[in-house]
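Reply to thread "Modeling small-molecule complexes from scratch"

Following up on the discussion above, here's a worked example others can learn from. I took a protein sequence and the SMILES for zinc ion and predicted the complex. Inputs first:
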Amino acid sequence: MCALQLQCTEQILAASVRHTLEFGMSRLLFLLAVAIVVYLLLKSYRRQMPKQDTPASSEEMVRCVVCGVHLPKSESILAGGKFFCSEAHRSEHISK
Ligand SMILES: [Zn+2]
């Protein structure tokens, strides 16, 4: 009776230890996954931040009168109050 009960207790203990380990492991893995996701999100967020601050993306976009392509104002060619994507389109528009 006593030996049997000890065996039973051992089994219960072993089962609960195994359960605790498995639960702990899955919780650890879950926390690890969450940590990785948060880390990746923060990393991509931080990578996006300077991009938003660069003048190129916040700069005013203009449209080429000839082909309709959008480009930053600093990269465009201004002629006669109109914007062009290239010198070729500027002269093309003027020659029309
Ligand atoms: Zn163009």
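What I'd highlight from this example: The chain is about 70% helix and 10% strand. The chain has two domains: 1-53, 55-96. Questions welcome below.
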